[in-house]
Design a protein that fits this description.
The complex is a heterodimer. Chain A has helices at residues 66-69, 88-91, and strands at residues 31-34, 53-63, 79-87, 102-108, 112-114. By secondary structure, chain A is mainly β. Among the domains of chain B are: 48-104, no CATH class; 106-137. Helices cover 51% and strands 0% of the residues of chain B. Chain B is built from seven helices and no strands. In chain B, helix 3 (48-62) crosses helix 5 and helix 4 crosses helix 5. The chains are: A mainly beta, B mainly alpha.
Chain lengths: 122, 137
């Protein structure tokens, strides 16, 4: 990517690492909750992370929606993909590792909702 | 995944909520948080048919005839997913898509398989015939 910014922008305006993500709903640092929904079909969000709250670590870009591609459609409109950071102890209540341990997962915007007062613009 | 791993009893999750754990729409591939049993980390290489099937999948993907996400969906929908090995899953998914997209019918596939088997009967466990020939003195 040759997009402007690099490390000069604030965390809030850091450009995408991969592809542009026009009109994205969340910014780096926003608290987001993974939707606790269980629709049938090919879904890119594992069950164990649904309902959990994390922080947007980066905006990966916008990509054809794999949940549509899976059924032979073109995946348009593209969906914004985020890398979301979760605290392991919050994901796994019986987690025995250090409290600082994290898990990062790439999650599409349609699977996320704002979480609390540090959350995204709605 | 080994057969032992695949057959391991799906035990209580590591503190993940009940609904996420038990939901009927949870696919067989979505095993995060479940106990898997011992993991076989030995590289078993690829059987002859696995190389052939993998080359076919790779070619069809490369040509854009099948897409990765379609293959994943077809794989996740396999009723016996957890009993199958990796290349059995990907090849079964490929078969589903080729029929779904109208490149062949179930009947045509069966007829072709019978025809090929009649002239080229490779046992399931057999290594490449060429390799075997080369290994002989």
């Amino acid at each position: 990517m040759s997009a402007a910014g690099g490390e000069t922008g604030s965390a809030q305006s850091r450009p995408s690492t991969y592809t542009p993500a026009p009109g994205h709903r969340y910014e780096v640092g926003d608290a987001v909750r993974v939707k606790r929904r269980y629709p049938p079909g090919h879904r890119r969000t594992p069950h164990y992370i649904r309902g959990k709250v994390g922080t947007v670590e980066r905006i990966c870009g916008a990509f054809p929606n794999p949940e549509e591609l899976a059924y032979g459609f073109d995946g348009e409109p593209k969906k914004v993909l985020y890398r979301v950071r979760f605290v392991q102890k919050e994901v796994w209540p019986r987690y025995r590792g250090p409290a600082r341990d994290l898990i990062e997962m790439e999650i599409f915007e349609h699977w996320l909702e704002p979480a609390g007062d540090t959350g995204g613009r709605t | 995944m080994t057969m032992a791993g695949a057959k391991a009893k799906l035990e209580a999750p590591n503190g993940v909520d009940e609904m996420a754990e038990k939901h009927p729409n949870r696919g067989p591939q979505d095993i995060g948080g479940r106990k898997a049993g011992p993991v076989d980390v030995v590289d078993h290489g690829m059987k002859f048919w696995e190389r052939q099937a993998n080359a076919l999948r790779s070619t069809l993907s490369g040509k854009g005839i099948v897409k990765r996400d379609e293959l994943r969906r077809a794989a996740e929908d396999l009723r016996d997913y957890s009993k199958l090995q990796y290349f059995e899953i990907t090849t079964s998914a490929l078969r589903t898509l080729m029929i779904e997209k109208g490149y062949m019918t179930e009947q045509e596939l069966k007829a072709k398989m019978d025809e090929v088997r009649a002239r080229f009967d490779v046992p399931d466990e057999m290594e490449s015939p060429l390799k075997q020939k080369a290994a002989q003195p």
